[in-house]
Amino acid sequence: MSDTALRDSPAPDTADPAELDLEWLTLEDGESIQWASTPHKYSVVPALIVGVPLSLVLVGIPIVVAAYLQYTNTNYVVTNRGLYSKRGVLSRDVQQIGFDKVQNISYSQSALGSTFGYGSVDVSTAGGSGIELQFRSIPDPAAVQELISRAIDGRQQPESDSTKEDVLDAILAELRVIRQAVADDHDAPAESTAPSADDHDPRPESTASPADDTSHADATESDE
Asked: pLDDT (tens digit, 9 = 90+) per residue, 130-185?
């Protein structure tokens, strides 16, 4: 599947990359953003439910602040080549996985997430142990999973077609060699086994035959 087809396919709800702080993201030549988002805004609801009542005793304030900072400082990005995740408030934790390494993709939603339309997408890699990358509390996780699956299929299909073409080219080349060998054998002159006119009988030529000797003897007796 081409990059243009990916862009034309229905995409999940995504934030405008221009509105997100993506200065941490470094793209390679030809790499483009297909989807980018922060966690869903309703993902902070559980922190508010717990933190607001406790704020009366000042315990809930750090909970609410931490949830808000996590929401605003977390970014998830899907490009036409891989997946990116950035977390951290004071520090920064950036993860990147190329599509060629992705082994399995799944998504999950809690009861609250199903109600408000958010969930998590889990990504595992070939040779890895467990989940290597997780998009947590993102909007419409099912659509994001489908987007990633299409992107992976789009990268694998050209490789498969290229492999088939290489095999066919090798078979055609071998058939040409065999056909040329058969043609050369057919055009080669057959060796003649019949003796030629220049061949001589190795036996010495006789000057007189036995019959001639008998006739000569009879003629001598008649004369006498």
From this structure: 889 999 999 999 999 999 999 888 876 555 455 567 777 788 888 888 877 777 77
Q: Which of 69, 74, 65 is nearest to 21 (CA)?
A: 74
Q: What pLDDT does residue 157 have?
A: 58
Tokens representing residue 190 in the block: 């057959």
* H/E run at residue 33: strand 33-37
Residues of the chain with pLDDT under 50: 1-10, 160, 192, 207-209, 211, 214-217, 219-220, 222, 224
Residues 119/110, Cβ–Cβ less than 8 Å: yes
d(CA 119, CA 107): 7
**pTM of the complete model beyond 0.85:** no
The answer for residues whose C-beta is within 8 angstroms of residue 131's C-beta and 6 or more apart is 122, 123, 124
Long-range contacts of 206-212 (CB under 8 A, 24+ apart): none
User: Distance between CA atoms of 30 and 17, rounded to whole angstroms?
Assistant: 17
* 60-72 vs 45-54: helix crossing angle, rounded to 10: 150
- The DSSP secondary-structure symbol of 38 reads P
